Amino acid sequence: MRVTHVITRLIVGGAQENTIASVLGLRQKPGLEVDLISGPSVGPEGSLEPALAGFPGLLTVLPELVRPIHPWRDGLAWRRLTRIFRLRRPDIVHTHSGKAGFLGRLAAARAGVPTIVHTIHGPSFGRFQNRAANLLFTAAERRAGRVTAHFVVVAAAMADQYLAAGIGRPDQYSRIPSGFVLDPFLAASNDPAARARLGLAPDDFVVGKIARLFKLKGHEDLFAVAPELVRQNPRIKFLLVGDGAWSARFRALARALRLDDHFVFTGLVPPSAVPGLVGVMDALAHLSSREGLPRALPQALAAARPVVAYDCDGAREVCIENETGFLLPPGDRAGLRERLLRLAADPELRNRLGRRGRELVRVQFDIHRMIDDLHRLYLRLAPRPL
Predict the structure, then answer these.
(1) CB 95 within 8 A of CB 101
(2) Backbone angles phi, psi at 19, to 5 degrees
(3) Strand arrangement, sheet containing 263-267
(4) Close Cβ partners of 305 (under 8 Å, ≥ 6 residues apart)
(5) pLDDT in tens, the chain (386 residues)
(6) DSSP 154
(7) Phi, psi (deg, nearest 5) at residue 367
(8) What residue ranges in 311-384 does DSSP mark as E strands?
(9) How far is it, in rounded angstroms, from Cα 50 to Cα 313?
(10) Whether the Cβ atoms of residue 382 and residue 91 lie closer than 8 Å to each other
């Protein structure tokens, strides 16, 4: 059985790491031939394309497949995808992300691909954008949904939102959490030498945040509460992992608040460096306004680090109130300040929440479980027996 995955771009990010892990893992399954199509990966977010360099022929890059709406390029991308599908004749086309999900599914239907699957890593519509954009993207998802045989969701919240918008039927959805290699996070330690390299003292209370430095990721709320947090606990430091278009803005904000000594910016780091950075954190804050189920949350929990998260999309499925961390209404800065101060003052609370989080993640987020679940889904949907 031939399976072709399609994604808009392979920048450093959760959906992209999920897709690469899925493609590489599924290639190990007997009877499966798996390849990947992506648009170009450019910008400050970095690229994961080098991870596929050792697999000749696996990745096809389509220059026309770009993230912004661009009618001329979008039309070219749709036509090129249609030609590729007709040439390769995949049994299943499995799409990821908004643009590739829309164009890829319509092209697969046009080319006569027997089975079309789409993974919803995060919502294309919601309160994070204006009414006109929501109308456009909801209409696009409904159109593509009509040719979709099955939806994979990384969180049950995604299925709820799409079903409420009239996209698909309940029996067309499967929840398959975004698994990852657990061992590096299970082994992550609070290494004093690693802290020293980052300018962190052994007795600092380190609040970590793993996200692109861009809108909708909630960095503004962390900066808003930082002055009061530091006033009440001068040992609090903030470790911001990632890069993005708003990097200069946030660095300038740290200086304007006279908190340059309390904010540490790692810049862009490869996924392999993330476990070591999580290890030096005492807690993780995730404050996004748009996510499916952010990988940063289970990654922190795998390292037994408690989390504080806004109740956005699938966050509540791993950030369980007073069990693995604290779940707050989006924008609740007072609650964010209070929970972080409580965690800073109570090591036993941190340990209790972290231990329970690790137990939950071990069961649900092992990468082998994700690959096996996808493989079983393909076998169920396969247009012909292997």
Answers:
(1) yes
(2) -65, -45
(3) 263-267, 236-241, 205-210, 283-286, 307-310, 325-328
(4) 208, 278, 281, 282, 283, 284, 350, 354, 357
(5) 999 999 999 988 889 999 999 999 999 999 999 999 999 987 777 899 999 999 999 999 999 999 888 899 999 999 999 999 999 999 999 999 999 999 999 999 999 999 999 999 988 887 777 888 888 889 999 999 999 999 999 999 999 999 999 999 999 999 999 999 999 999 999 999 999 999 999 999 999 999 989 888 999 999 999 999 999 999 999 999 999 889 999 999 999 999 999 999 999 998 899 999 999 999 999 998 877 788 999 999 999 999 999 998 889 999 999 999 999 999 999 999 999 999 999 999 999 999 999 999 999 999 999 999 999 999 999 866 54
(6) S
(7) -60, -35
(8) 325-328
(9) 31
(10) yes
Q: Which tokens sit at 201?
A: 């003292």
Please tell me the distance from the alpha carbon of residue 339 to that of residue 353, in angstroms, as a whole number: 13
Q: Are 208 and 277 in contact, with CB atoms under 8 Å apart?
A: yes
The pTM of this model reads 0.89
Amino acid at 77: A
Domains in the chain and their CATH numbers?
2-179+366-381 (3.40.50.2000), 183-364 (3.40.50.2000)
